[in-house]
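Quarterly update from the structural biology core.
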Amino acid sequence: MTRFNPLHRFRNALVLGLGLIAVAAQAQQVFRLTAIPDESPTELARKAAPLVKYLEGTLGMKVEYTPVTDYAAAVEALVNKKVDMAWFGGFTFVQANARSGGKIIPLVQREEDEKFRSVFISSDPAVKTLADLKGKDVSFGSQSSTSGHLMPRSFLLQANINPEKDFGRVAYSGAHDATIAAVASGKVQGGALNISVWEKFVADKKVDTDKVRVIYTTPPYYDYNWSVHADMPAAQREKLAAALLKLDRATPEGKAVLDLQRATRFVPTKAENYKGIEAAARSASLL
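Predicted structure, tokenized:
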């Protein structure tokens, strides 16, 4: 007859319990990413979908896209480690880095972001140059947008145009596509936005270029990047960067991600690339 041993039962229960805890912990491991809301929520979710699928396969864990309500919320989400990775504009990266005491690391940027540009558009036939915007109503995107506000403002100031003094009214649409809509509808006579969103609208025939046209294209500057918190383990950071750098338009998976990200490919980046944006923000008293 086998003798009952309470110790064996306790040990077996303990092993089972620890196993269940380990399984639960593994099941709960989720990699979260977010993006500044520079376009409509539906467009951002559409852009994120193939990237989420790709990262799940590469990282070997569940990946979730977490939408945010505004630019400030994207900054706070990464600074407070509510998400693991965020798609920032150059200015939001600078804001997040300052807010965290230098603990935000830009991993990669699109090749296009090494020489990014903004455009000023107008539907007013009398507006042909930046100077012609004086006395007109002009819209930027979000106040925290690099390509929809900070850099266009910086180039206006360089041209001796002060938006608050020289424009009839300064508006903030909140997003690049909303700026196009405001100009097209005549709510404002001019607007500044991200060149890639403008080119996408033109290519998709979502804007009538006989009525709305580009009046000025800015010089190039560094812009968007995927950033992480410095507390992310180095091994995971390296694996994540490698996954993004490996994306190739020659593969169906890579093409699906890169097309929606409007990228030729991703390239490495570093915090020093955004010193010019930081200087522009300080000069405009926005940081």
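The longest strand covers residues 104-110.
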